[in-house]
């Protein structure tokens, strides 16, 4: 399965900790992330991450394009809902594309853990058929 990670600056440490905790599960899958988030995950886990541009300079749009092309099976997007960002349109586009293309999406640690455990059990294998 192909898993994408996006994290705003205030959530990058949380994303790193999630990936450390679920490293063994993630190691079995193809991983993608926006530039800085991907680098930070790689540094703490040793996992191989395919990186796009940094989110604020187009990385979120690149992940969105991958979702549109049905190249992503799961998105974990830790955003900071309390701050206004200039890329709010990009954020909403990623969320909307996940809805349109039936891509499971986690926007907080609780839903991310549930989806990663489901991924490990094989509960998301229906994505193979969906493609």
Features:
131 residues; alpha/beta; Rossmann fold; five-stranded parallel β-sheet; 7 helices; 15% strand; globular
Account of the protein in words:
Helix content is about 50%, strand content about 15%. With about 130 residues, the protein is α/β, with parallel strands linked by helices. It has one domain: Methylglyoxal synthase-like domain (Rossmann fold), CATH 3.40.50. A five-stranded parallel sheet has the order 3-2-1-4-5, with helices on both faces. It is globular, with a radius of gyration of 13 Å. The mean pLDDT is about 90.
CATH top level assignment: Alpha Beta
Q: If classified by CATH, what would the architecture be?
A: 3-Layer(aba) Sandwich
Radius of gyration: 13 Å
Largest sheet: 5 strands, parallel
Backbone shape? globular
Give the domain tally: 1
Relative helix content: 40-55%
CATH homologous superfamily classification: Methylglyoxal synthase-like domain
Quick take:
The protein has 131 residues and is of the alpha/beta class.
Would you spell out the secondary-structure blueprint of this structure?
Elements (H helix, E strand, L loop, with lengths): L1 E6 L4 H10 L1 H4 L3 E4 L1 H11 L3 E3 L7 H10 L5 E5 L9 H13 L4 E2 L2 H13 L4 H5 L1
Parallel strand pairs: 1-2, 1-4, 2-3, 4-5
